[in-house]
Design goal:
The chain has 111 residues and is an all-alpha fold. The protein contains four helices and no strands. Helix 2 packs antiparallel against helix 3. The mean pLDDT is 91.
Length: 111
């Protein structure tokens, strides 16, 4: 159960399910797509302007927005923590394997 702080910093019992029930699944799915698009733009700017503090702050903000939307997507599509964590681990292992393969290839080229 996700708990949110409101502007006065009091804990509330509002859950992601409450948010989805209020705004609707389709609206929140579209919001998730919009937040992903905004993250793509923020990443692009961060790459172009790596030493710009406002660009960095924008990237942090968009990452937070996408993380919130991911939690809602998991709720909307009944994706369990176990399912998500298994896929996360699978993808992480795949990335590590790719890294090791690339590193090995680079080392062979320098021999």
């Amino acid at each position: 159960k996700a708990r949110w702080k409101n502007e006065e910093h009091y804990m509330t019992d509002i859950t992601y399910k409450d948010i989805i029930d209020q705004f609707g699944t389709e609206r929140q799915c579209r919001q998730a797509m919009e937040e992903c698009a905004e993250l793509i733009q923020a990443i692009n700017k961060a790459v172009r302007y790596p030493n710009n503090s406002s660009t960095r702050l924008q990237l942090i903000e968009e990452i937070a927005d996408v993380k919130i939307m991911i939690m809602q997507l998991e709720e909307m599509f009944d994706i369990t923590w176990k399912e998500a964590s298994h896929m996360f681990e699978y993808k992480k292992v795949r990335l590590i394997k790719k890294y090791l393969e690339e590193k090995h290839m680079a080392e062979r080229r320098t021999e």
